[in-house]
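Collaborator request log, item 7. Partner lab (contact: R.S.) asked for a structural prediction of BolA family transcriptional regulator to inform their binding assays.
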Amino acid sequence: MTSRSERIRTRLMQVFSPSSLEVIDDSAKHAGHAGASPEGETHYTVKIVSSQFDGMNRVAIQRAVNKALAEEFETGLHALSIKARSETA
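Returned to partner:
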């Protein structure tokens, strides 16, 4: 069984072909908070740079990343901090 981190990484690579991608599990920082799970894998930070974001504003990029990860949100991903930019930004 693959971890949520691996699934997030795989999905973002498939959809955005980023030149840079970092997926950070922040779940331990949120233990006891709403949406946190004792097993973890609920809170993440994604740092991504992709030419797919060229011409998109910040809100459009956030929506695109959230849409790409919709299945993860449906299966327990609670919070996602997105630090994204285009290649030209």
